[in-house]
Write a structure and sequence with these properties.
The chain has 71 residues and is of the alpha+beta class. The protein has a 3-stranded mixed sheet. It has a domain at 1-49. The protein has 3 helices and 3 strands; from the N terminus they run ββααβα. The protein is 44% helix and 13% strand.
Length: 71
């Protein structure tokens, strides 16, 4: 998941898991509103992996903290 191409960093794995659960719920609701019921199985089976970010990791796309997005 990203915000304008930047990797989103969370303060804890619990915060990241909550975000993923809420995003899945939002996606299902939005698919139903648009009448795209065929998307729901793909949404439900999305393989989201939460990984710990370390100082050794680098990316050219940049990062953004979730707290900054919430503001």
């Amino acid at each position: 998941m990203h915000d304008h191409g930047k990797i989103i960093l969370f303060n804890s794995s619990n915060e990241a898991q909550f975000f993923v659960q809420e995003f899945i719920e939002y996606s299902k609701t939005r698919a139903m509103q648009l009448g795209k019921f065929g998307l729901i199985p793909a949404i439900m089976s999305a393989d989201v992996q939460i990984e710990e970010w370390t100082d050794r990791m680098s990316c050219t796309c940049g990062t953004v903290n979730f707290d900054d997005i919430k503001r």
